[in-house]
Specification:
Elements: H1 2-29, H2 48-53, H3 58-67, E1 72-76, H4 81-90, H5 93-107, E2 110-116, E3 124-129, E4 134-139, E5 142-154, E6 161-166, E7 170-174, E8 182-185, E9 193-196, H6 214-235, E10 239-242, E11 248-254, E12 260-266, E13 286-289, H7 296-313, H8 317-321, H9 329-364, E14 376-379, H10 387-399, H11 404-411, H12 415-427
Antiparallel strand pairs: 1-14, 2-3, 2-9, 4-5, 5-6, 6-7, 7-8, 10-13, 11-12
């Protein structure tokens, strides 16, 4: 029991460190970061509404620019390809995989649980898990060997906490208000909780897609807040006046010792308003107004920060500011070059995680593909291409002898679509080419006849 308790405490500590960081990233992705530290004085409380209005969810765009281009469409797994895809679809992972990938891009890690399940038609269940409830403990020096998986969650009704520790040979469950864990043999023979990481590191936690975006996002929020305050004050400009004799009044107060004190204070001469008239009985008196702020500096600062965010996060600028005027296909391709490179890097690491999931799932149903180390994930093409560009490229590939099935893959067809197209192609009657016929002594015109030859001799 000492070993179980030690592993439980180690996993719990790791989850305790993981949750606050994940909450920070999640708040920025949801557009709900903490209020900036501007409310330290009483007079600034009036600006609370401006702080709420200053939020601009650029971080969501940075993440979604990557997430929307990452779609698993099939598995290339030899004779087990169909079995792998059947398990994937039986667990709705063709949709739920994007939940895990988005969590991983936002918080740095996504989690998925693979375990035997007799109620699932495939015989195995694959379920996304929250980074706020799950974590994986690795062997020191090897991030691919999982020592333990840990899940801690609260009952939605009672709020009581349940903890589950998954070891290669044992699953221990600590129920609420129960001292000793409930022990069960792990039927999988391995830790079924896996971590999906798009940007792993050799040391420390995996990086979030928002690490470089958050400081710039805060800068933009601060600039927008300052602009809102300036525009509010500038909407009704401050008035000045000369030659005005201010009325005075005596204010009596008591000091700390209980002694009365009197103070002479000026009385506000006018109640300023857009629908009020100012008068001054002094013929030498003058009125004026302080010039307003044109706000151009604030707008320019936001534009510069958006450009900086686009460059640092490799997000096409038109994703962020929405300006897309007469861009050619080559210009769009150049603007997206950095993003596509980043997406392919994320696919590389996330794909390794999905390959481990598939091997584990195939092993649980006894499929020999579980030991296929050459299997790989097939992704939808992340690049943006026009139909004309794609058709032209495929035509050129066909002219140099590229097989048709490969052309279909480059077209973006899924394996299921390719199989359907092959069946249609096989079932379609092919035209029969008849050999050319010519009259004796006639000149060969080079025309191949497919029906009857018309020699023009009547």
């Amino acid at each position: 029991m000492t070993y179980l308790d030690d592993m439980r405490q180690a996993c719990s500590r790791q989850l305790d460190q993981q949750i606050p960081q994940a909450l920070l990233y999640q708040s920025y992705y949801d557009g709900e970061p903490a209020i900036l530290a501007l409310l330290n004085t009483e007079e600034r409380l009036v600006f609370r509404r401006f702080l709420d209005e200053s939020q601009a969810n650029w971080c969501e765009l940075v993440v979604n620019a990557v997430a929307e281009r990452m779609q698993v469409v099939a598995f290339e797994w030899g004779s087990s390809s169909d079995a792998a895809w059947a398990i994937w679809q039986a667990n709705s992972m063709d949709a739920d995989a994007e939940l895990v990938q988005t969590d991983a891009l936002v918080t740095g890690s996504g989690f998925v649980l693979v375990q035997p399940d007799d109620t699932n038609p495939s015989g195995v269940s694959i379920t996304p898990e929250s980074p706020f409830e799950a974590t994986v403990l690795y062997q020191p020096g090897n991030r691919r060997i999982r020592l333990a998986g840990f899940k801690r969650f609260s009952d939605p009704v009672s709020g009581k906490v349940t903890e589950i520790l998954m070891l290669p040979d044992t699953i221990a469950t600590w129920l609420p208000n129960v001292g000793d864990p409930v022990l069960a043999t792990n039927p999988a023979g391995t830790v079924g909780l896996l971590e999906i990481t798009p940007n792993p590191r050799t040391m420390g936690r995996p990086r979030s897609e928002l690490d470089s975006a958050i400081p710039i996002n805060d800068r933009i929020h601060t600039t927008i807040f300052n602009r809102l305050v300036a525009s509010d004050f500038g909407a009704f400009r401050q008035i000045w006046a000369t030659g005005v004799k201010l009325a005075r009044q005596i204010v009596t107060s008591t000091d700390d010792a209980g002694n009365p004190t009197t103070t002479e204070v000026a009385v506000k001469p006018w109640d300023i308003g857009a629908n009020r008239l100012l008068t001054n009985e002094n013929p030498e008196g003058r009125f004026g107004a302080f010039p307003g702020d044109p706000l151009a500096g604030y707008l320019s600062a936001v534009e510069q920060d958006i450009e900086a965010m686009a460059a640092i996060t490799q997000t096409p600028p038109y994703y962020l500011h929405g300006k897309m005027v007469n861009l050619s296909a080559d210009a769009i391709k150049a603007a997206e070059a950095g993003l596509i490179c980043k997406v392919r890097r994320r696919m590389l690491h996330i794909g390794e995680g999905w390959e481990t999931v598939v091997r584990l799932a195939l092993g649980l149903v006894g499929d020999p593909g579980a030991v296929n180390m050459a299997g790989q994930v097939l992704w939808a093409d992340p690049e943006t291409r026009s139909i004309a560009q794609l058709a032209d490229a495929l035509t050129k590939f066909a002219s140099i002898g590229v097989p048709q099935e490969i052309l279909w893959q480059r077209l973006g067809a899924t394996p299921a679509e390719i199989d359907a197209w092959k069946k249609i192609q096989a079932a379609s009657p092919k035209p029969v080419a008849l050999p050319p016929t010519t009259d004796a002594g006639a000149t060969d015109t080079g025309v191949t006849d497919t029906a009857t030859a018309d020699t023009g001799n009547g």
